[in-house]
Amino acid sequence: LHAHLTLDPHFTVGPVNRRLFGSFVEHLGRCIYDGIYEPGHPSADGDGFREDVIALVKELGVSAIRYPGGNFVSGYRWEDGVGPRSERPRRLDLAWHSTESNRVGLDEFAVWLKKVDSELVYAVNLGTRGVQEALDVLEYANIRSGTRLSDMRVTNGHPEPHRISMWCLGNEMDGPWQLGHSSADEYGILASKTAKAMHQVDGDLELVVCGSSSAQMPTFGSWERTVLEHTYDDVDYISCHAYYEEKNGDLGSFLASAVNMDGFIESVVATADHVKAVRRSGKTINISFDEWNVWYIDRYHGVDKVTGRDDWPEAPRLLEDVYSVADAVVFGSLLISLIRHADRVTSASMAQLVNVIAPIMTEPNGPAWRQTTFFPFAETSRLARGEALTLKLTSDTYETAEYGTVSVVDAVATHDAEAGVSAVFLVNRSQESSVVVTIDVRGLGAVEVTAARTLSDDDYYAKNSLADRERVGLVDNDSVVVAPGTVTITLPPVSWTAVSLG
Ligand code: AHR
């Protein structure tokens, strides 16, 4: 099989915003407790945070983290999680049928984010709460001092404001499972009021309004339109959420999941621009793709879900998907899709970060390790700098049940003019054959390949686990041939590759 792509730094999509490499930490299962926070762990620092996890999060290169949910936020009282730990209430978490101990809250999370060099993106509860509580948490977090709530933060040991600039107005309010689920009109009106009030505190805040919780929702499209009709002047972003999984053994369709993500993004852009046109607005709304990943959601509903009236476990093992090579290839291709739309997707959060559908796993009092999905994220975050390029890609194709005829190879490239480096990210979706890819690099002048690393395995379902933590990793791709004006590389079946050009 063959593919050909032309890479020219003059043809750009837009700058790759560092916020594209964001993640998401929810009070869910063992993401926080026994994940990032485990005071009794041998690697715990003075604040109770696992230093082995901090090191992995830094290696992953996560730029911003959305917190504290997710479904959890729609029943959350932020004030439960601040002040002396001994006085914090234990509460029912209705979203995940768990007990929330509130040992970690806004202040601790802000401290942890400094340790991992990442930005805090905070979601307010618009499920069971509203304008006043959003204003309260904003005052607590961002005002220096001299008012009741800002002084409360100072008394709690945090004299410097957290200065959170990006805020999410609730979570997945279109979903019937969401606490406080509402119609697009109800939510749009509340989101607009909340945004206006928050802007009275600080006109520079960047606000994200909830889009659909998936492109499969019956209200998809009309939800975005109605919500933006209410909030267009008040917000900067609309959110997208998408999770993919292999269904019924159809690996071919699963490997083509980015086709669906491309269509999803383009539909939301079209809808936002429709509202822009109707309003004759000069403002453009961008996308915060603030939940995306591979997630075997049926496993949660079939195996993990807790329901008993007297059963409210604390930090249970929920959504602990173990990812294969094939999952990581799909995951890498989703990143390709996000970068391909860098002009309009200017923020994104891989969901989630530790233990819960996560690239990093931990055992209590035990090790932390990298799942297969860790590698494409870390490499892409490290290498995708500067501008995303418009690629001319031709490739052999294959047939899928879900998406019809699909390119065997998918790719995106970035170019950092200042540093004089480029990167190409590629996937081979074929299960049968390797692909020889010829990259026309004449537009870059003389280049050398400084690295080419591939994730693949003869067993597409190979995984890393507690018992075998380094079974899967990146390996150097030695097939690269550089000739004047072209770079040729062979991609093994079901693989993800990053090529660095200098
Ligand atoms: O990431 C897991 C859950 O998926 C989130 O809580 C919710 O927003 C989405 O449905």
Task: Using brief descriptors, characterize the structure shown.
binds alpha-L-arabinofuranose; Immunoglobulin-like; alpha/beta; TIM Barrel; single chain; 7-stranded antiparallel sheet
Please give the CATH architecture of the largest domain.
Alpha-Beta Barrel
Query: Could you tell me the radius of gyration in angstroms?
Result: 22 Å
CATH topology of the largest domain: TIM Barrel
Mean of residue pLDDT values: 97
Number of domains: 2
Topology:
Layout: E1 2-6, E2 12-15, E3 22-24, H1 51-60, E4 64-67, E5 91-93, E6 98-100, H2 106-115, E7 119-124, H3 131-142, H4 148-155, E8 166-169, H5 184-201, E9 206-209, H6 222-231, E10 237-244, H7 251-255, H8 257-279, E11 286-294, H9 297-304, H10 325-340, E12 345-351, E13 360-362, E14 368-370, H11 374-383, E15 387-389, E16 392-395, E17 397-400, E18 404-407, E19 409-416, E20 421-428, E21 435-440, E22 449-455, E23 475-476, E24 481-483, E25 486-491, E26 495-501
Parallel strand pairs: 1-21, 3-4, 3-12, 4-7, 7-8, 8-9, 9-10, 10-11, 11-12
Antiparallel strand pairs: 1-16, 2-15, 5-6, 13-14, 15-19, 17-18, 19-20, 20-26, 21-25, 22-23, 22-26, 24-25
Helix pairs in contact: 3-4, 3-5, 5-6, 6-8, 8-10, 10-11
The protein binds alpha-L-arabinofuranose.
